[in-house]
């Protein structure tokens, strides 16, 4: 099903059957693939920490000032001007977690890789900005994550929550540590398209994960490559048959999981407000019709085309241009959709 959707979308983009060029991974090569690992954004001198096969408190004890206990609380600091938690590598986050590195940052806050002293594993902790609207969204996300975990014992579809706590007025959500997002992987490999077989496997899992949420009457509302994480950070470097160089990187495993449920909504809730990141937003949202489960499926289609081409399908920030691009790719929108449109919303020039 995912293959048909991706192929059909690719045909629509060009207006003719898409013929894939013969690429390096189609050709047998005597050279063997090389294996590597992507790391996230590092903060501080933590190279030796990341090389440790079994990280522990002892590994980063050298980062702490002399006389500071390993489980001591860090000094009190003011948040930055945007409400982000200010930290240093090697400090504790509560007494249970040791900060190893910064994995990423977004509007909501920061994600840190930490050592969990109790479970003896690396975890990812989202530290939410000390701003009420983000704290409220974090509590919604915790509720959704707990419901997903309860109904997915194998942890197959969505990131698994381990714990949550309030630390110095910041909601902290502890989850399993996963690999890079599909967007990060594309970015680090020059936005080269994925092979169709890999897209097929990713697409199948993506549709299964969305169907799992929909069975629970949950709508993600913000599906995009940034919110789909590879389970593993490992990649393979494929040899170029022309010169023998290793210039092509692909994920070693196709396993993925969904993340970021701060915007998730239950089907019975109000569904009249704007949802989804612009490039993955369904036409009914732009036209002010309200939205439901199909808005997630539209986003999935946009994502699969992006993996096929390496480029965002609808690259715009203007409602009218967005609708015109949809018309160009898919043909005219159904008349009944246009007749019910909220013209004040759909004709606003720059919404985001």
**Strand arrangement, largest sheet?**
2-3-4-5-7-6
Query: So, the CATH homologous superfamily of the largest domain?
Result: Transferase(Phosphotransferase) domain 1
CATH class of the largest domain: Mainly Alpha
The overall strand count is 13
Please tell me the overall pLDDT. Answer: 83
Query: DSSP helix count?
Result: 10
List the helices and strands in order.
Answer: HEHEEEEHEEHHEEEEEEHHHHH
In brief:
Keywords: ATP-binding, Kinase, Nucleotide-binding, Serine/threonine-protein kinase, Transferase. InterPro entries: CLK_kinases, Kinase-like_dom_sf, Prot_kinase_dom, Ser/Thr_kinase_AS. With 352 residues, this protein is of the alpha+beta class.
Describe how the helices and strands are arranged.
Elements: H1 2-14, E1 34-37, H2 47-51, E2 92-93, E3 97-105, E4 109-116, E5 121-128, H3 132-151, E6 161-167, E7 170-176, H4 182-188, H5 196-215, E8 218-219, E9 228-230, E10 234-239, E11 246-251, E12 256-258, E13 265-266, H6 283-286, H7 294-309, H8 319-330, H9 335-339, H10 343-346
Helix pairs in contact: 1-7, 5-7
């Amino acid at each position: 099903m995912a293959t048909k959707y991706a192929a059909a979308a690719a045909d629509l983009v060009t207006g003719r059957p898409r013929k894939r060029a013969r690429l390096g991974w189609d050709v047998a090569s005597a050279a063997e693939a090389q294996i590597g690992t992507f790391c996230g954004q590092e903060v501080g001198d933590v190279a030796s920490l990341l090389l440790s096969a079994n990280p522990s408190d002892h590994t980063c004890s050298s980062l702490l000032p002399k006389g500071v206990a390993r489980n001591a609380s860090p000094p009190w600091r003011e948040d930055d001007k945007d409400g982000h938690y200010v930290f240093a590598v090697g400090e504790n986050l509560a007494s249970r977690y040791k900060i190893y590195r910064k994995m990423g940052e977004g509007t909501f806050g920061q994600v840190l890789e930490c050592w969990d002293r109790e479970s003896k594993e690396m975890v990812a902790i989202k530290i939410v900005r000390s701003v009420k609207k983000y704290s409220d969204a974090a509590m919604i996300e915790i509720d959704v994550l707990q419901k997903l975990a309860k109904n997915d014992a194998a942890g197959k579809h969505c990131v698994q929550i381990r714990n949550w706590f309030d630390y110095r007025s910041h909601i902290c959500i502890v989850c399993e540590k996963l690999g890079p997002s599909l967007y990060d992987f594309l970015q680090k490999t020059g936005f080269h398209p994925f092979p169709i077989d890999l897209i097929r496997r990713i697409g199948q899992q993506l549709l299964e994960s969305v169907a799992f949420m929909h069975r629970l009457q949950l709508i993600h509302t913000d599906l995009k490559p940034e919110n789909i994480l590879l389970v593993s950070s490992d990649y393979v470097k494929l040899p170029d048959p022309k010169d023998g160089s290793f210039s092509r990187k692909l994920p070693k495993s196709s396993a993925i999981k969904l993340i970021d449920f701060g915007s998730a909504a239950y089907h019975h809730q109000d569904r009249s407000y704007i949802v989804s990141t612009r490039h993955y937003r369904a036409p009914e949202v732009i036209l002010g019709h309200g939205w439901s489960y199909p808005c997630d499926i539209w986003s999935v289609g946009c994502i699969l085309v992006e993996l096929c081409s390496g480029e965002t399908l609808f690259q715009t920030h203007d409602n009218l241009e967005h609708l015109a691009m949809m018309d160009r790719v898919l043909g005219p929108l159904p008349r009944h959709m246009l007749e019910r449109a909220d013209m004040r919303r759909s004709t606003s020039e720059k919404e985001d």
